[in-house]
Amino acid sequence: MSLILKAIGLGKWFELSLSHQMKVSPFQNLSFEVAKGEFMGIAGPSGIGKSSILKCLYRTYLPSSGEIWFDSSLYGTIDLAKATERQITHLRIREIGYVSQFFKAIPRISALDVVADRLLPLGYSLNQARDRAMQLLERLNIPEQLWQAYPATFSGGEQQRVNLARAFAVRPRLLILDEPTASLDNDTKLNVLALMKEMKQDGTTMIGVFHDWDVMGKVADQILDLRKLQASKEQEQMAGM
Amino acid sequence: MSMNSADLINNAEKEWVWNETPLLKVRGLSKQFGAGCIHCKQPTSDEQEGSRCQYCGSIWACRNLSFDLYPGEILGVVGESGSGKSTLVKCLYFDEETTVGEMSISSYEDKTSNLFEKSAQQKRYIRNHVMGMVYQNPLLGLRMPISSSGNIAEKLFAADHYHVGSIRQRAADLLQKVEIPLARMDEPPKNFSGGMQQRVQISKALANNPPLLLLDEVTTGLDLSVQAKVLDLIRNIQRELRVAMIVVSHDLGVIRMLADRTMVLRQGLIVEQGLTDQILEDPRHPYTQLLVHSLL
């Protein structure tokens, strides 16, 4: 099976220089590969750097070292760690989706348009985009009377559902999910699972962090366990000494 | 449009992305205020060295700025006052004479010639035909005593539109877009509130359908609800018309809402640039970190 993503020696550190100099590194020298159409889950206790890995893939964080080779339909094989900002912008519109852990409400935009906005850069007319947005909001159990309301006023679970509707409105080559089901009730969770399965069938590769092993077990083909990885690295180091 | 495939791209689109060229190219733009002397002939790119010449007191307000702007893109320029961000857009709009540097616009003439070297007459032509500018102070962009529709007509005349009937229609359309009641389109801006004046200024800047719009601190000094209205207007314009914009602001909230990419200026230098979400979540330069953590 062909690979769609291959990370080699990926590392990130933050240098903060506000009140005092500080260096923080969520992960170092991380390598993994994902086959086309596969679902890779990332597991590990909180604070081990799961979200940071996802943000590096999406380039919200700039990786400090390593390579991220992505099989792009636009550019062929491209290193996401080194791609230009304009290339990343095009990839984000057409090939790489991202569901953040917390929904950042854009002020004064209705739930319907938050979802429809995702489709406009792809050449949809406003009406087409809104039609598609309605389908998704419906599937994610957002009551119709909320569609014209501002998500900033929604509950956490409702906000997350809008966030998911936005991501699920398209079929990107790669979808990155950061704890997408954390604040959802059971019914919605099942709908989200069904949607993810549909996307997978349509060929979308997914990389996700899940709090809930139950959900992860249901969707993931491969699990990257950061705690195990860390432990084996420590062992290697010990053996090397 | 098929949704049943993880491929959102057809060949025509691929070709379009591959052949995409910047609308605006700026290389090595520097602007000096003051006479200059033998010691400050060249601006230094050294952050430790200030922008003021210790011998003659001249200031390099912009130092060696290079960047591209793509069609339909919004580039944010952020920095504290005195960082050179307003001087930058004023140079681009020929309000200030650029000391050194090159600028080219792909939709103008031969695409590559340095527009800073054009004659005053050609510069006026470029301003009137391919650019729009919105200033922080509406006094600079509007003629306060003449009617709002007249203000728009003035910009259209400058861009070689002479049909009075269609000019009037265009003015009505534009003012409607920025939510100025039609009944008031012949009133002079001096009768309007600050927020309304700003909206008239935006409609005037858009009158010639420019591919490039420059916005200099356009929401600064407006109260919050009015600020929100102006920001929403800018967002909608970008969504509908796909105009490329340079948005200058000291307010990271404004940049966060509007810009795809952001440049951080300090003492006339670009100290950091990147995707806006990356600048906000993973700022690397100490000054950018300070800015981000100062955000309310």
From TrEMBL, chain A:
<dbReference type="InterPro" id="IPR017871">
    <property type="entry name" value="ABC_transporter-like_CS"/>
</dbReference>
<feature type="domain" description="ABC transporter">
    <location>
        <begin position="5"/>
        <end position="241"/>
    </location>
</feature>
<keyword id="KW-0547">Nucleotide-binding</keyword>
<dbReference type="InterPro" id="IPR027417">
    <property type="entry name" value="P-loop_NTPase"/>
</dbReference>
<dbReference type="Pfam" id="PF00005">
    <property type="entry name" value="ABC_tran"/>
</dbReference>
<comment type="similarity">
    <text>Belongs to the ABC transporter superfamily.</text>
</comment>
<dbReference type="GO" id="GO:0016887">
    <property type="term" value="F:ATP hydrolysis activity"/>
</dbReference>
<dbReference type="GO" id="GO:0005524">
    <property type="term" value="F:ATP binding"/>
</dbReference>
<protein>
    <submittedName>
        <fullName>Alpha-D-ribose 1-methylphosphonate 5-triphosphate synthase subunit PhnL</fullName>
    </submittedName>
</protein>
<keyword id="KW-0067">ATP-binding</keyword>
<dbReference type="InterPro" id="IPR003593">
    <property type="entry name" value="AAA+_ATPase"/>
</dbReference>
<dbReference type="InterPro" id="IPR003439">
    <property type="entry name" value="ABC_transporter-like_ATP-bd"/>
</dbReference>
Automatic annotation (TrEMBL), chain B:
<dbReference type="InterPro" id="IPR003593">
    <property type="entry name" value="AAA+_ATPase"/>
</dbReference>
<protein>
    <submittedName>
        <fullName>Putative phosphonate transport system ATP-binding protein</fullName>
    </submittedName>
</protein>
<dbReference type="InterPro" id="IPR012700">
    <property type="entry name" value="PhnK"/>
</dbReference>
<dbReference type="Pfam" id="PF08352">
    <property type="entry name" value="oligo_HPY"/>
</dbReference>
<keyword id="KW-0067">ATP-binding</keyword>
<comment type="similarity">
    <text>Belongs to the ABC transporter superfamily.</text>
</comment>
<dbReference type="GO" id="GO:0019700">
    <property type="term" value="P:organic phosphonate catabolic process"/>
</dbReference>
<dbReference type="InterPro" id="IPR017871">
    <property type="entry name" value="ABC_transporter-like_CS"/>
</dbReference>
<dbReference type="GO" id="GO:0005524">
    <property type="term" value="F:ATP binding"/>
</dbReference>
<keyword id="KW-0547">Nucleotide-binding</keyword>
<dbReference type="GO" id="GO:0015833">
    <property type="term" value="P:peptide transport"/>
</dbReference>
<keyword id="KW-0813">Transport</keyword>
<dbReference type="InterPro" id="IPR013563">
    <property type="entry name" value="Oligopep_ABC_C"/>
</dbReference>
<dbReference type="Pfam" id="PF00005">
    <property type="entry name" value="ABC_tran"/>
</dbReference>
<dbReference type="InterPro" id="IPR027417">
    <property type="entry name" value="P-loop_NTPase"/>
</dbReference>
<dbReference type="GO" id="GO:0016887">
    <property type="term" value="F:ATP hydrolysis activity"/>
</dbReference>
<dbReference type="InterPro" id="IPR003439">
    <property type="entry name" value="ABC_transporter-like_ATP-bd"/>
</dbReference>
<feature type="domain" description="ABC transporter">
    <location>
        <begin position="24"/>
        <end position="292"/>
    </location>
</feature>
